[in-house]
Amino acid sequence: MWRLQWTKLFLLAFSTTLAYLLLLPILTVSGLPNQVKIGILLHENQHEQAIIFKWSIEQVNQRSILGKTRLQGLIRHVAEDDSWDSERKTCDLLENGAIAIIGPTNPTTSQHVGSICDTLDVPHLNVVSKGVTFNSQPSATNLIVGSSYPIVSPIQMVHR
Q1: Cα separation of 117 and 124, whole Å?
Q2: What is the rounded end-to-end Cα distance, in angstroms, of the chain?
Q3: CA-wise closest residue to 78 among 119, 106, 98, 116
Q4: What is the torsion angle, in degrees rounded to the nearest 10, for the CA atoms of residue 85, residue 86, residue 87 and residue 93?
């Protein structure tokens, strides 16, 4: 039962990310690159999530939602509680051209990944047991599934 719920949350979060990252720029930018890479960090036992991620990428590409632009998913597997491994794999994804990072699901390692993404102004979709958050710099808006409003941090309030 929990796997089905996690899968639904993952698909909802991934769809939201695609809409935010990729569909909005189509309206404001005249051209997109031929290929857009999205990275995901999965724990070694998350094979179903890898399949869902690949399927989601294929669905976007098959439907020509982005015109001639194709999505490419970059998957890296990380140890569940190894922050160093998560940091190293995050850097690898970014070096390979990922414009956004999804995961990992461990709260501790996800914070490390989020910190790297914040520093480099790379959107980070955080999927942990408490819910789904999406942090996109420079606006730093967090979206939580089930909420109807963005959560604003004190730091964001200073920048308004």
Answers
A1: 6
A2: 42
A3: 106
A4: 110
* Domains (range + CATH), the chain: 2-22+36-158 (3.40.50.2300)
Instruction: Please tell me whether the overall predicted TM-score, pTM, comes out greater than 0.90 for this model.
Output: no
Nearest to 106 by CA among 45, 34, 16, 31: 45
Reduced to 3 states (helix: H, G, I; strand: E, B; else coil), residue 93 is helix
Q: CA–CA distance from 155 to each of 28, 71, 144 (Å)? A: 27, 33, 18
Contacts 24+ apart (CB under 8 A), 127-133: 127/9, 127/10, 127/13, 127/102, 127/103, 129/105, 131/9, 132/9, 132/12, 132/13
The string of pLDDT tens digits covering residues 108-133 is: 888 889 889 888 888 888 776 555 55
Q: Which two tokens stand for residue 34?
A: 């031929």
Give the residue from 16, 6, 26, 22 showing the smallest Cα distance to 142.
Answer: 16
